[in-house]
Amino acid sequence: MNAQDLIETAKMLVADNKGLLAIDESNPTCNKRFAKLGIPQTEEARRAYRELIITTPGLGEYISGAILYDETIRQQKQDGTPFIQVITEAGIIPGIKVDMGAKAMAGHPGEKITEGLDGLRDRLQEYFQMGARFAKWRAVIAIGDRIPSQGCIEANAHALARYAALCQEAGLVPIVEPEVLMDGAHTLDQCSEVTEEVLQTVFNQLYTQRVMQSGMILKPNMVLPGLTCSQQESVDEVADATVNCLLRNVPAAVPGIAFLSGGQSGELASARLNAMNFRFKARSPWALTFSFGRAIQQPALDIWQGKEANISKAQQALLHRAKCNWAARRGEYNAAMEGKGV
């Protein structure tokens, strides 16, 4: 492990008001999205869509890193240029999703544990040789009747910490993603309480596993009421609840917090990120940035629909969402931007 390289890469991932683009959906997840739009669920269609994304002109002005999937990091443009070369030449740092997905947790009905630690050391070494410089592992925590349990939180936190330690050993910056899901009827306060417990447990495990905090990025959920909760707080109230929760639980040594979108619309995710930076940037010990997937990609996918003639317009939509989130990092996003395009 070269500690200085890890620290510099982590800083680069959150520099210049840029953020991360998550294009790491598994093949089954990507195929489901394609099916809804009548796009063929084939490797070639997935390859063409990924090429559309990574060749978007100007993407590197707003995106610092791209999280890829195992299939994607091995793919090439139609002309044979490796994707990883295209991304690097655009000034974007390549990253890789390395977990094997959240599976039902034995003895814990309704809860999941993320798998993928077996063989991870060797896989990380291969990805580093391919050019990846950071990685991602997602744990999911559901709020419901008598859940999350302490057992679920502790098991996922331990796995996240072991993954992070292996990443740093291999020279990769770990993106640590403990996601408290927004599904359900829980209140904002309930989400805040669970998120706080999860973060405390995760950072305790990171410390125990000797993970260097200055060489990692945290990718948490925003503190939100459940999707079916009758009370939906304002953008400013969500910003206050989220950042205050993080201030109580995330060490200042962590260089950046890159929020997941978690199913929020692109516009709402941008508005909430903007409120956090507008209200807290001057006193935040870490960069408050984004690591969005659908919240950046979905408009482009809706336009593309698998048709070559739609590529340019789809890329414009993708760049627009990236630019909106870049503005949100500066605390300068507003709804008027949505009518202007790129």
Model description:
Helix content is 46%, strand content 15%. The protein has twelve helices and ten strands. It has helices at 3-13, 27-36, 43-54, 70-73, 83-89, 120-130, 150-170, 188-208, 235-249, 266-280, 294-304, 311-329, and strands at residues 19-23, 63-68, 93-97, 102-104, 112-114, 134-141, 173-180, 217-218, 256-259, 287-292. The strands form two sheets. The chain has an eight-stranded parallel beta barrel with strand order 1-2-3-6-7-8-9-10, surrounded by eight helices. It has 342 residues and is an alpha/beta fold. It has a single domain (3-330), classed as Alpha-Beta Barrel (TIM Barrel), CATH 3.20.20.
Could you give a short description of this structure?
The chain is an alpha/beta fold. It has 12 helices and 10 strands.
- CATH homology group: Aldolase class I
For the record, the count of structural domains works out to 1
CATH class division: Alpha Beta
Q: Determine the number of helices (DSSP H or I, runs of at least 4 residues).
A: 12
Structural class by helix and strand composition: alpha/beta
The biggest beta sheet is recorded as:
8 strands, parallel, barrel
Which shape, going by the Cα principal axes?
Answer: globular
